[in-house]
Amino acid sequence: MMIEEFNFQLPKGLIDANRELHAQGKMRLLTANDELIVQELSSRDPNIDIVFLLLAQAIAKLGNLHQVTAQQLEQLFLPDFVYFQELFSQLQPQNVTASGES
Known about the structure:
Blueprint: E1 5-15, E2 21-28, H1 32-44, H2 50-58, E3 59-62, H3 70-73, H4 78-91
Antiparallel strand pairs: 1-2, 2-3
C-alpha cells in the first residue's frame, strides 16, 4: 500500500488572521482531479500563482486548519515557502509516463 500523506514541520509556521501559528501538518499526493481543480481555479483568478494553488491542494492539514487556501499560503515566511516547494518536489511524481513509470 502506498503512503499518500506525509507529516511535516515548517521552519517558522503560518500565522493566520487570528494570529494563531500553524507549523505542523500533512501533505498528500496530488491526484488527476487535483490538477483539474488547479487548472480551473487558475483560470478564474489569474492573479494567484499556480504554485500556491498546487500547494493548497497538496496540504491536507496545517495546524488546526483542515483546508489551506492559496491566499493564506501567499503570507508564508520565505523559509516556509522554500520548505514547501522542496517537499512538494520530493513527494509529487515528476515526469511520469503513461505506464506510470518515472
